[in-house]
Specification:
Distance between the termini of chain B: 52 Å
Structural class of chain A: alpha/beta
Strand content of chain B: 35-45%
CATH superfamily of the largest domain in chain B: CPE0013-like
Structural class of chain B: alpha+beta
CATH topology of the largest domain in chain A: FAD/NAD(P)-binding domain
CATH topology of the largest domain in chain B: CPE0013-like fold
Number of strands of chain A: 27
CATH architecture of the largest domain in chain A: 3-Layer(bba) Sandwich
Radius of gyration of chain B: 18 Å
CATH superfamily of the largest domain in chain A: FAD/NAD(P)-binding domain
Shape of chain B: elongated
Number of domains of chain B: 2
Largest sheet of chain B: 5 strands, mixed
Number of helices of chain A: 7
Oligomer: heterodimer
Strand content of chain A: 35-45%
Mean pLDDT of chain A: 93
Bound molecules: flavin-adenine dinucleotide, iron/sulfur cluster
Distance between the termini of chain A: 65 Å
CATH class of the largest domain in chain B: Alpha Beta
CATH class of the largest domain in chain A: Alpha Beta
Chain lengths: 419, 118
């Protein structure tokens, strides 16, 4: 086995891994390595040719490739090193070793001071949600269709039905329309949109594509190729109302039913995983349950905005560098962030307190949409931060900033309805 | 005339209610910030969108160059622009922000590369 030695090793070269590597370098880590299984850096953003990235961070609307190239340029200038076409097979948290296969060196063992996990997420597939019917050609997850159309020049179909109103599905509805396909409808089980409102406006409304909320696909027809789907409204219990079922002819079905963090490596390394996010449990420095192992981006929780990914990844990179240099503030106490009313999960899950007070951004998602809301963070009965929002939505991440100097014990984040 | 416009500047997606006649805005409410106020005022009179797509690279079957309009285009021109871009192919290498189609459909806006391709 080929041996290498680095201060910080980053697994995954998407926007999370890139931002972590850049900030580790900036914090003073000397040798930083990114290991990426694809033949190029950029992660999922390579296929996200649409605009909508960087509004918060760069105050302009960039496409995926423009967004990540700002980070690859910085990484190059700072001397971050890469191993491409290299798949990480194992992470040894105790010995701080990362084992990967590499086209260039064969099997490689990289020993390092700290590790950043930034493997992103993968799509839920149809098997995970079970639609009855045959298994003909013409069924794709929205993201795999996006990769085929945008990176490999393969058109996946002419008459399309999309199941799920997630962002990737809506973005593919516009993309397929621009490429000359007819998108018949987008079918969503819930009675509200899964993705961002702006994607509904720009991707569906602009092209007159119908959105069927509280509907589902009950059956897929076709032998060799899809010939159509049955679509029916659902009742309050999400059960299809079969009397109102209708047949919709199409040759392609895209599934946009959500993403799950890619954590085979983390699980194998016995890193504690949250059952809600399916990602590692992290503190405010993005450190996992294994000391010196950090995680950031979609591998921790599925983000809708890459701007948030970049900022939490910078935190991960910064503290990974400090850990490698033996420079992490001594912990005096750990508190847990607990979910209160209408909060599904919070990231970070814990806060490590030390003598130095710091500000911490708590990112969280709500369970249900609500108008006129107040976001509150409190320790016991004492409110330590609050913020008003015109509306909250499960598809959109919220955040509230707290100062660790005010934390007296476990912290609860809740959403209060205001009139 | 009264229109509800969903602001698409940031993920909040505020519903901004605009009232007015023939492009002159008389009342505007519901925006969460100033950028949204400007967006809704512009949307009330004309719709513009950034267009993104891909173009073929000569001699490569399974590789595409991602491109965008340098500025937002009038919405009603989008499909015309797509028809023009479909006929275009480029020779590698291409640098990010190289102009691929100049002044597309007489809009005064260019189609530029969003990625460097060796
Ligand atoms: C279709 C789509 C549309 C989106 N639209 C927007 C938008 O309009 N605006 C916005 O702000 N955000 C958008 N996002 C969200 C944003 O793109 C993501 O939040 C961001 O890409 C996450 O970055 P990441 O680095 O965590 O993951 P990824 O980009 O997925 O990168 C993970 C990388 O890790 C690599 N990897 C995984 N496992 C291994 C391994 N074992 N060994 C080596 N390498 C490995 C992968 O190959 C990949 O390159 C969109 C996302 C998708 C999928
Ligand atoms: S009005 Fe401001 S806060 Fe509301 S969506 Fe637009 S940019 Fe965002």
């Amino acid at each position: 086995m080929y041996n290498m030695k680095y201060d910080v090793v980053v697994v995954g070269g998407g926007p999370a891994g890139l931002a972590a590597a850049v900030s580790a370098k900036e914090e003073g880590a000397e040798k930083v390595l990114i290991i990426e299984r694809d033949n190029a850096l950029g992660g999922i953003l390579q296929q996200c040719i649409h605009p909508g990235f960087g509004l918060t961070r760069f105050k302009e609307e960039l496409t995926g490739p423009e967004y990540y190239s700002r980070f690859t340029e910085k990484a190059d200038a700072l001397g971050v090193e890469y191993l491409l076409n290299s798949m990480v097979l194992e992470v040894n948290t105790e010995a701080k070793q990362v084992i990967c296969t590499s086209g260039e060196y064969g099997m490689v063992c990289v020993t390092c001071g700290s590790i950043v996990l930034a493997m992103g997420c993968r799509e839920r597939t149809r098997a995970g949600i079970v639609v009855p019917g045959t298994r003909p050609a013409g069924l794709y997850t929205a993201g795999s269709a996006q990769r085929l159309v945008n990176r490999q020049n393969i058109m996946v179909g002419k008459k399309v039905v999309i199941l799920g109103s997630g962002d990737i599905g809506m973005i593919m509805a516009r993309r397929m329309t621009l490429e000359g396909a007819e998108v018949v409808m987008v079918v969503e089980l819930m009675d509200y949109l899964a993705g961002l409102t702006r994607n509904r406006v720009q991707c569906l409304d602009d092209f007159g594509i119908p959105l069927k909320l509280a509907h589902t696909i009950t059956k897929i027809e076709g032998n060799e190729r899809v010939t159509g789907v049955y679509v029916a409204p659902v009742d309050e219990n999400k059960k299809p109302i079969l009397e109102q079922e209708e047949f919709v002819p199409c040759d392609t079905v895209l599934f946009s039913v959500g993403l799950i963090p890619e954590n085979e490596l983390s699980k194998k390394a016995s890193i504690a995983i949250s059952p809600v996010t399916n990602g590692p449990i992290v503190n405010q420095h993005m450190q996992t349950s294994s000391e010196g192992v950090f995680a950031c981006g979609n591998v921790v929780h599925v983000n809708d905005l890459v701007d948030n990914v970049s900022s939490e990844s910078e935190t991960a990179g910064k503290f990974a560098a400090r850990y490698a240099m033996g420079n992490i503030p001594a912990e005096t106490k750990t508190v847990t962030c607990k979910t209160g009313r209408n909060v599904r999960y919070i990231c970070p899950h814990t806060i490590s307190l030390s003598k130095e007070a710091e500000t911490v951004d708590l990112y969280f998602r709500v369970l249900m949409p609500e108008m006129g809301a107040k976001l509150v963070a409190k320790c016991g009965d004492e409110v330590i931060a609050q913020k008003k929002e015109i509306k909250v939505n499960p598809g959109e991440m919220n955040h509230i900033t707290v100062n660790t100097g005010k934390i007296t014990g476990d912290l609860t984040v809740e959403v209060i309805k205001e009139d | 005339m009264k229109k509800d416009i969903i602001c698409t500047i940031c993920p909040k997606g505020c519903t901004v209610t605009v009232e007015g006649e023939a492009g002159a805005v008389t009342s505007i409410t519901g925006f969460g910030c100033k950028r949204g106020q400007e967006y809704a005022t512009a949307e009330f009179t004309s719709h513009v969108r950034i267009l993104t797509t891909t173009v073929k690279i000569e001699g490569r079957d399974s590789d595409l160059l991602p491109v965008r309009s340098s500025r937002p285009l009038p919405k009603e021109k989008i499909l015309d622009c797509m028809a023009v871009i479909k006929e275009v192919s480029v020779k590698a290498p291409v640098s990010q922000y190289d102009v691929i189609v100049e002044n597309i459909c007489g809009t005064g806006i260019d189609i530029v590369a969003t990625k460097t391709m060796q």
